[in-house]
Each structure stands twice: as structure tokens, then as C-alpha cells.
Amino acid sequence: MDKPMNIFDIAGRAMSAQLVRLNATASNLANAGSVSGNENQAYRAIRPVFSTIVEKPGVATVKVDKVVTSDTPATRRHDPGHPLADANGDVWEAGVDSSAELVEMVESARMYQNNVQVIQTAKSLLLETIRLGK
């Protein structure tokens, strides 16, 4: 049987989940302006899907179940001079909303930082408790 989750396990798992979210956002932003010669090959944004892990009432954390591809369609743009243009002179731009990705990035970074603060506070409280016991 696994040992019960403690505050460090809970916050650590939450930080790992936010790191996956931040990596997905970085991938999306990196591909935001990319183009392709056809719609099927155009980059689509990716998103992690989280689920809750409940050990007992009041003790829960999060994990990444999977990473899914967005259904946001690629944008067709007429650019006959582009080397990837199809027979009609069109290229397909990645289905990524840069503004939404920036919001996602800020939110995941804040969530990560919140969990760092939880760990720092728990560590301080434990050290203070040990100091009081001496």
C-alpha cells in the first residue's frame, strides 16, 4: 500500500501538472505563425486534460490524463508567392490563438508559483515546529 499523500506530494504533483500545461502553451506559441501546404498538416493547438486524484475527503491533487489536440480549424490565407502554397495559391496557418495562449501561460505560471509558495510555507512551518520542540 502506498504511503498517504502529504502536502509536499500534493503540491509537487500540482506543479508537475502545471509544467505540462506550460510546455503545451510554449509549443502552441512556438507554432502560432507556422503555415502548411494543406489543412490536414497545419499545426493545431494542444491542451492537457487534468483529472483529480482524491485520496480521502480533504486530501486531493491533480494529474494529467492526456494531451489533446484542439479542434480550432487552420486558417486559409491566399499567398501565391509562398513556397508551400497549394495549386490555388493558398497556405494554411496554424489554428492557434496567440492571445488565448498568453493568458494560458500567465495562468499556469501563477498556479505553479502558488504551489511553490505552498511548499515554502509548509517547509517553514515544519522547521518552526522542530525548533519549538528543542
From TrEMBL:
One protein family per Pfam: Flg_bb_rod
Q: Where in the cell is it found?
A: Bacterial flagellum basal body
The Flagellar basal-body/hook protein C-terminal domain extends over: 91-132
Keyword tags: Bacterial flagellum, Cell projection, Cilium, Flagellum
What domain of life does the native source organism fall in? Bacteria
Question: In this protein, which residues make up the domain named Flagellar basal body rod protein N-terminal?
Answer: 9-32
What is said about its interaction partners and assembly? The basal body constitutes a major portion of the flagellar organelle and consists of four rings (L,P,S, and M) mounted on a central rod. The rod consists of about 26 subunits of FlgG in the distal portion, and FlgB, FlgC and FlgF are thought to build up the proximal portion of the rod with about 6 subunits each.
Q: Which NCBIfam families match?
A: FlgC
Q: Please give the family membership noted in the entry.
A: Belongs to the flagella basal body rod proteins family.
Q: What is this protein called?
A: Flagellar basal-body rod protein FlgC
- Species annotation: Sphingobium lignivorans
- What lineage does UniProt assign to this protein's organism? Bacteria, Pseudomonadati, Pseudomonadota, Alphaproteobacteria, Sphingomonadales
